[in-house]
Amino acid sequence: MIAAGKICAALDEWAPFDTQEDFDNSGLLIGSMDQPVSFCLLALDLTPEVCEEAKKRGAQMVITHHPVIFHPLKSLSPDDVAYQAVQAGLAVLSAHTNLDRAPGGVSDTLADLLGLSSADDLDGGDGFVKIGLLPQAVSGEELAGLVRERLGLSGLRLLDAGSPIRSVALCSGSGGSFLKEVLASEADAYITGDLKHDQAVEAAAAGLTLIDAGHYETESIILEPLREYLAERFPKVEFRRAMADRPLFRYR
């Protein structure tokens, strides 16, 4: 078995925890650095279903992207997943904004999946927003089809500005707060999740195509690269994607 602290240290080498945003709460949030680990599940969120799966499959650790403890806790009850994790004896390690902005992290993985060349940090995007070029100009519908195919989506939201698209900005997760920086760039389209109506109105007025591909869908893509990274460094530990880790929203 490997101590949880060694796994934490290996993740820190890729996505240093001291690069997380001030509002974030990444790190080992439940359990001890000395906890022995031979089986670890990976999930975007620690839900009660993921926690129960970890118990049934005999995992000692769960690594999540979203912190299981994000806001200050005033109480804990058996209904709280953090309480359930403690009761199950699980160590829970979360890597959030530090993994979003890390080289090869979530947004870089999204850019690679979409085949963007020369992808680099967008000015003012704080390392979360990338901008790159498609191999050739496409329409909004064609870009939406590409995103749907590469991310394995059953649907997405498209605001088609009607202009050819070659330069694409993207941000995994919820990237609406960076819309002004994207509008100030040379991007023809912006791909992210959780876009609001007023942001769509602003983008439409500026002639920017928007694709809302979903928060979960634009972030869960990091779980397999994360599993491969850790499995290579700790061959005696079994790292598996949690089967209960699924998007909450469904397209009907």
Structure, explained:
The structure is a single chain. The chain has 252 residues and is of the alpha/beta class. The protein is 33% helix and 24% strand. It is built from ten helices and 13 strands. It has helices spanning 4-14, 48-57, 81-87, 97-101, 106-113, 140-151, 179-183, 197-206, 215-219, 223-233; strands at 2-3, 27-30, 36-37, 39-43, 61-64, 91-94, 117-121, 130-138, 157-159, 165-174, 189-193, 209-212, 238-241. Strand 10 (165-174), helix 7 and strand 11 form a beta-alpha-beta unit. The radius of gyration is 19 Å and the shape is elongated.
The coarse silhouette is elongated
Query: Major beta sheet, specifics?
Result: 6 strands, mixed
Tally of DSSP β-strands: 13
Percent helix, as a range, is 25-40%
Order of helices and strands: EHEEEHEHEHHEEHEEHEHEHHE
Number of helices: 10
**On the 0-100 scale, what is the average pLDDT?**
97
Structural class: alpha/beta
Strand content: 15-25%
Radius of gyration: 19 Å
**Sheet with the most strands: spatial strand order:** 7-8-10-11-12-9
Uncertain ranges: none
Head-to-tail CA distance between termini: 44 Å
In short:
The protein is an alpha/beta fold and 252 residues long.
